[in-house]
Write a structure and sequence with these properties.
Radius of gyration: 29 Å
Largest sheet: 6 strands, mixed
Shape: globular
CATH topology of the largest domain: Rossmann fold
CATH class of the largest domain: Alpha Beta
Strand order of the largest sheet: 5-6-7-3-8-9
Number of helices: 18
Low-confidence stretches: 292-299
Number of strands: 18
Number of domains: 3
CATH architecture of the largest domain: 3-Layer(aba) Sandwich
Distance between the termini: 40 Å
Mean pLDDT: 89
CATH superfamily of the largest domain: P-loop containing nucleotide triphosphate hydrolases
């Protein structure tokens, strides 16, 4: 159990949260949500002891073992995969290393024998002899092989390091698991395995995530950081979201009734205050009016952008024809081969699978690089707007302000016109004059969406558009793409986005072959499982 009492934290003179009193109990998974900058990761760091709170305390029994997902994937480059995962249970790892060091001694003494015996007993009691088997099971669940157990961490791909660090956090049945964005960099199969693992877990799990489907599947409670406070709600993310919207509507209705009552009282006072026969009533009503105040909605830290795409013209019958496209990576690895598909009038296609292959396909369709073979043809009526996976070239070495940056892509460059698009993306007042080279990842993504909305295109191509976005912005992207009347091809790690927007799935498999499926993402996964 974790008990939090009177917790507050200031960062750089800003109050993130105050007067926090919470309890986290075993058998539950707590999803921690809040706008970017609200303090989600900071809250986790306080709980695991990496940061000291400004006031209050965090109480965790000494007998409880806590495990934390670490984000530094290069810290273990000199270690084997097996040892890196085992370090998730530091006491067990230290016992194993001390035991091995004693056995390697040439001048093995009686005292060494006694110590080795003690360590062997502790090692066995902590299920040390089953450790390798457990680690193998964890890594296989995440999509890695047994052969990689004795690989050096420095030899792994970045996506594999992510999986090893996650296995480290899950290893050894810790009482408390703390995970900050655990699904980042994971493929769909690994995410599904993790969801199942956490759903059945006996301990206390705290997780920060921007993946709505993941939060819905694993969470028993939602911990909301907002209004400089932290409140806990029973239920998963969807239940919290619907409840919070209902509460907001109820407050607005109460305000409306209160405002009507105020207007009624004000009218009565105005009408009868000069009438001597009604003066007593007017006085009493004025006193009642003084006591009656309209409840203001709390100033939430959440801000919802608006993403919407209007088409300047409707697409004709011919949209996109792709025939036998082939592409290999620089090292000769086949990314895709003999890729053929035709885009129909109402198709919204999600690309899943090999992310390097997906990005290469987007770049080929946008004529930023050439295919090794095959061809494609766009319909003459098609106008395209593209969201690249890497937006660095759009901002690198650029000192323009946000509004001047956007003006580069606009037909109309009046400040009023440009501010209209930037306002939708939450850039208002003087923020539009901020240089683009100092923007955060999420701010750059919102700039890219403002740019896309300028074009009035009837075909959208988006490669991982939800990276760096908070839950509110991801919801806005979801709404905008769902409402779009044209065609689109997109990729995303967000399950909910793919499932609610796409009506066709194309998966690029590791061997470069493809599967083309008409239907929702959920239907496709069900078919794969069957």
């Amino acid at each position: 159990m974790i008990t939090i009492s009177n917790l507050s934290f200031h960062f750089g003179g800003q109050l993130l949260f105050k007067d926090v009193d919470l309890k986290f109990t075993p058998g539950n998974c707590y999803g921690i949500i809040g706008a970017n900058g609200a303090g989600k990761s900071t809250f986790l760091k306080i709980l695991c002891g990496d940061l000291e709170p400004s006031t209050g305390e965090v109480s965790i029994p000494d007998t409880v073992r806590m495990s934390v997902l670490r984000q530094d994937h290069f810290a273990f480059d000199t270690f084997l995969v097996l040892d890196t995962v085992m370090m998730g249970n530091k006491k067990l790892y230290d016992i194993m290393k001390e035991k091995d060091a004693i056995y390697e001694k040439e001048d093995f003494s009686e005292a060494d024998g006694m110590r080795a015996s003690e360590l062997e007993a502790e090692f066995a009691e902590m299920n040390g002899w089953e450790a390798e088997s457990e680690i193998s099971k964890l890594l296989q669940g995440l999509g890695m092989s047994d052969e990689q157990l004795y690989d050096q961490m420095s030899e792994l791909k970045e996506s594999e390091k992510v999986k090893v660090m996650l296995a480290q956090a899950l290893f050894g049945n810790p009482d408390i698991i703390m995970l900050d964005e655990p699904t980042n960099g994971l493929d769909i199969d690994a995410i599904m395995w993790l969801e199942e693992f956490l759903s059945d877990y006996f301990g206390t799990v705290l997780v920060v995530s921007h993946d709505r489907h993941f939060l819905n599947d694993v969470c028993t409670n939602i911990v909301d950081i907002d209004y400089t406070g932290i409140k806990m709600y029973v239920g998963n993310y969807e239940f919290w979201y619907e409840s919070s919207q209902l509460i907001q509507r109820m407050i607005k209705q109460q305000n409306k009734k209160a405002e009507e009552k105020i207007r009624e009282l004000q009218a009565f006072i105005s009408r009868f205050s000069a009438n001597k026969s009604k003066s007593k009533q007017a006085t009493s009503r004025r006193k009642l009016l003084d006591k009656l105040t309209v409840e203001e909605l709390p100033a939430s830290s959440r801000r919802y952008p608006f993403i919407g795409f209007d088409m300047d013209r409707t697409a004709g019958k011919d949209i996109l024809f792709v025939h036998d496209l082939c592409k290999s990576a620089s090292d000769g690895t086949v990314l895709f081969q003999n890729l053929s598909f035709t885009v129909g009038k109402e198709d919204k296609i999600a690309l899943i699978g090999n992310e390097m292959a997906i990005t290469a396909l987007f770049r080929i369709l946008m004529e930023e690089e050439a295919a090794d073979g095959g061809d494609f043809k766009w319909g003459v009526s098609i106008t395209k707007s593209y969201f690249p996976h890497d937006n660095t070239p759009y901002f690198k070495d650029c000192t323009l302000s946000i509004i001047d940056w956007l003006a580069q892509y606009a037909k109309e460059t009046t400040e009023t016109y440009l501010r209209g698009f930037l306002g939708r993306m939450l850039f208002s007042n003087d923020s539009v004059f901020k240089p683009v080279n100092v923007l955060s990842g999420g701010e750059k993504v919102r700039c890219m969406f403002a740019r896309m909305m300028l074009f009035g295109s009837n075909f959208l191509l988006l490669d991982q558009p939800t990276d760096h976005l908070d839950l509110e912005s991801i919801s806005a992207v979801n709404n905008g793409l769902s409402a779009f009347k044209g065609n689109l091809i997109f990729s995303s790690h967000d399950y909910e986005l793919v499932n609610t927007v796409a009506n066709r799935i194309i998966e690029i498999l590791p061997d470069g072959s493809t599967v083309d499926f008409s239907g929702t993402y959920e239907d496709y996964l069900a078919r794969k499982k069957a």
